[in-house]
Amino acid sequence: MNSDYGVPRELSEGTTVRVEFGDGTTTADYSSSHVISRAFPHTYGQPLAHFLRATAKVTDAHIISEHPVIRVGVVFSGRQSPGGHNVIWGLHNAIKTHNPTSVLLGFVGGFDLLGRTVDQIRTTEQVNATRAACIALKLDGLVIIGGVTSNSDAAQLAESFAETKCSTKVVGVPVTLYGDLKNQFVEMNVGFDTICRVNSQIISNICTDALSAEKYYYFVRLMSRKASHVALECALQSHPNLVILGEEVSLSKLTIFDITKQICDAVQARAEQDKYHGVVIIPEGLIESIPEVYALLQEIHGLQRQGVSVENISSQLSPWASALFEFLPPSIRKQLLLLPESDDSAQLSQIETEKLLAHLVEAEMNKRTKEGTYKGKKFNAICHFFGYQARGALPSKFDCDYAYVLGHICYHILAAGLNGYMATVTNLKQPANKWRCGAAPITAMMTVKQYIGATPIGKPALHPATIDLKGKAYQLFREKASSFLLDDIYRNPGPMQFEGPGADVKPFTLCVEDQDYMGRIKKLQEYLEKVKSIVKPGCSQEVLKAALSSMASVTEVLSVMSAPSFNGQIPL
Amino acid sequence: MNSDYGVPRELSEGTTVRVEFGDGTTTADYSSSHVISRAFPHTYGQPLAHFLRATAKVTDAHIISEHPVIRVGVVFSGRQSPGGHNVIWGLHNAIKTHNPTSVLLGFVGGFDLLGRTVDQIRTTEQVNATRAACIALKLDGLVIIGGVTSNSDAAQLAESFAETKCSTKVVGVPVTLYGDLKNQFVEMNVGFDTICRVNSQIISNICTDALSAEKYYYFVRLMSRKASHVALECALQSHPNLVILGEEVSLSKLTIFDITKQICDAVQARAEQDKYHGVVIIPEGLIESIPEVYALLQEIHGLQRQGVSVENISSQLSPWASALFEFLPPSIRKQLLLLPESDDSAQLSQIETEKLLAHLVEAEMNKRTKEGTYKGKKFNAICHFFGYQARGALPSKFDCDYAYVLGHICYHILAAGLNGYMATVTNLKQPANKWRCGAAPITAMMTVKQYIGATPIGKPALHPATIDLKGKAYQLFREKASSFLLDDIYRNPGPMQFEGPGADVKPFTLCVEDQDYMGRIKKLQEYLEKVKSIVKPGCSQEVLKAALSSMASVTEVLSVMSAPSFNGQIPL
Question: Coiled-coil region(s) at which residues (chains A, B) (predicted)?
Fold first, then answer.
């Protein structure tokens, strides 16, 4: 295999790279910025960095031409994700190409090459141990490969290292199969494409089977954590009959009975077309998106934090929470009582929401049959949980390329002496030779989650991005949803291909969105420069007047949009 | 796609085909042959047929040069299997190439193109309805695509049609994902390769996940019916830690406690190497291979045939069966009480043997921990059933080719006017242009299952072939089993490829066996001809003496080996 595979021209081995810095960064949630800047005094507000091929013409930018020996540590943090190893491959090649005496050290933790240990580097003890190890090993850089939680930890480590004058620079890499580390700077995560393709393959097989057997409803739960990105992408790839997105449930505040009713109505509508089979996709995070179940889980976790033992929890719940708890089947009750994960969410992979829903739907259909409102055949469900069978998959070509390039970028971030940055590749929906390589301060991706009124409290961190219900991918899904439901237009993308047709496909959710945020930031800078160059002292009164009036209006709109109360909708 | 794809030279479109007939056929179990010949007076003992490209030199063979219009019906019988549609494609192309006015009609039943209805064509009512339909539609041929049960039905139909002078010829095609329609004439079934490759892909992903997470034992049950062919092939492809083959359990008469103990000993041996993860493969037929469970199931099915209701069965079991029944967890009890399938086996896909074993192993490990004989970490199991997600897969390249060729052969069988034959392709482990195309009477593949002493009783039928524990594939597995168990030499064949490296792989179990039975039959005929041509009247006394003595010895050995009591071992 060509080790230079998929690397954009800018970074191909041996070329000299220049770093171009953008403006200092802020955060998407303007109102949290002061909280974040106070928490990260050494690493907040750093500029964006773009890595470009150095050309003779450009002289003002920072060209990295010296490549002293460097010592870099790399660690997988949290759950495994396909493609993680390819980051290491890219990083190793970049390091060795620029200086063969440089060293890459792997720390045990995460993924099969290095094994999996703890899910976090967060407590004072963990941070101090990490610092001590970095000093003892004389590391110039520490690369942390992981998702939302791991990269939050990376930012915290970077700040702590800067504060204590530890010279190790910390770099994060967005690798998580859930696809929920998404923001202005990060279009996609390594692993997501593979997970969606493996899951779509088997969901599609299940769809074909449903259509052949004509007697089962398959309820398929997908490993995806809180957000439903995996479910949305798989829906666009496979066209199953029904997908219950957690984000829709949250927005509409649907109760578990509302959801059951919706599924039953779908079963009934299909029965009227003489169809007694179907495929229903359920993201594992759905259970937490149901308001009353979420409230119940919060009560349970609160009691657990107070040290209440498992046997005593149910008796100490509030009356309404207790009523819901007692209504649930015993197996689900037991699963809800499991201790929460390191990010405080429930153990989503262990809660069999698909069985709960299949059970409730069956009961409701039997009730409708008794009442005579449903006259079709008996409802039969078969339940599946798809998670472990995708997580260990060989990475797709896209994930290999993306991960390899991110590994390269990590080296250049360290060579440029940057700390607290995440490696980024944008313009991903274009062919790899048009990808843009860069780095963004992790603090610029942070938000503060808990609010009192409009005042943010709580610790700044990266938070899982949920599906943008105004985004193009979701809109595309919505347009097709009723056809998916009734027409059985199942689509089988087949197994992931490494060569030939299909090898170069990319996630739908990546390809339909307008991305290239970094490119658009650059475009804005060009406009501003252009205005400056036109409106120079000596320009006509008319030009100055037009510029002032236009800019006044632009700044006013933007000020309103960035005010604390603004939540994405223009106030009317 | 090239419609001539994968067709051996002999049958490529437009070439004239000649049929070469071999000797009349017998059955592998010599002692049943008279029972079968009595049951199938019109279709037993027909000769093998070989289809070859007609060359100018050969004149004595039957060359099919006339291609009148024919009307053919095709039906999928029983469960769906990847590649079934490709048989129709091959059949349709062959029919239309030889006479564009010929007609192919599809009957509803099985698979998604035609939908699934009943699993059999067996009762007098079904046979008569089929005959009436064939006559009404003026069918020259009826092609039945399916597994062991469907092809037994095909043979019965053929005999019944011949007896009643119905002119429709019946042809069977070996398409079953279980890979259990295996005999002297049939090396492999359409669908098996795909199923094993899809299952191996996800088993391998599970193995990688186990090795990454280092904390779970995955218990994976595979859809495979009575035999363990799928499990054996997947084991050779993925190298999981442990595979419990039903055939081994049957042979060694292992009880459910023996199996539990074996798994626990494996867990303990791995814990001593500080390994607390693993992957255990369980064929769905295992449950019927455990002697005491099989006996229990027989009792339950017997009571069901007597019309005893589900609630009353447990009270009418014999004392020992009742004791076992009560010992089992309630969910398993419920599953054992399901009505048997059309082939009298239990509803294997519904019995969660993997959960039963995981439950028993956990209990035993806890017991060992309490007793102090096990000092390792707590045993954690996650259970999976892989079936539906493979059954609807796109067929592999091998299955496409194989199915397409079988479809072609069906046409030539009908053009040659043969009835009660199965289409066969041998030499499958060689590239497609070396495949040998033929047809064998289905009756020659039959056995009679129930014996009183050495006397066969019961109805002749095709029976699922079990794993040959003296075969090379099993031997290969056995040699590696202890390394699989302890060394975690997991192998990930990756997703099925349609182009590039890996696209042309074939099942291990196909490639390691010495096959080409038909080729060897031909070789034997050549030897016999050679002897005849040497020992002609006029040959020397010495030659005649040597021939007589040698042939006497050969016939004696073969007579002993074919005697009723002979069960595959030379009597000492």
Answer: none
